[in-house]
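Tokens help. One example:
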Amino acid sequence: MVLQPYGLPAGSVNKKHGQAALFWVGQRCTHELVRTLTLDTVLVYIAANLRRLRQKRGMTQETLAEAAELDLRTLQDIEGMRQSVSLGALVRLANALDVSPAALLRPAEMPEIKRGRPRKRPAGT
């Protein structure tokens, strides 16, 4: 096996898709490919996790904004991926949802957003 500097196997660093990271496991050093994320990707993760956790807890945007001491419009913009979130706001949102801040940064996809009012139920149901 041909080694690159820092003990990485040849070809282990893929500049297009990520970079190699070193991890010490016991007495040996291993490497793992770490994906390089864009700001847009992280904003999608935060927005998707916020919406999923908020809905799972039966909270409205208004109640979550109040619990996290944020302006409602700010929360709407964060969930709509129109605004970056500060570290302080991320921690307050996580606390309001009773999760760790890391839970809001987990990879997730935005569900399809249903626009408009729900359909009326037929009478008698």
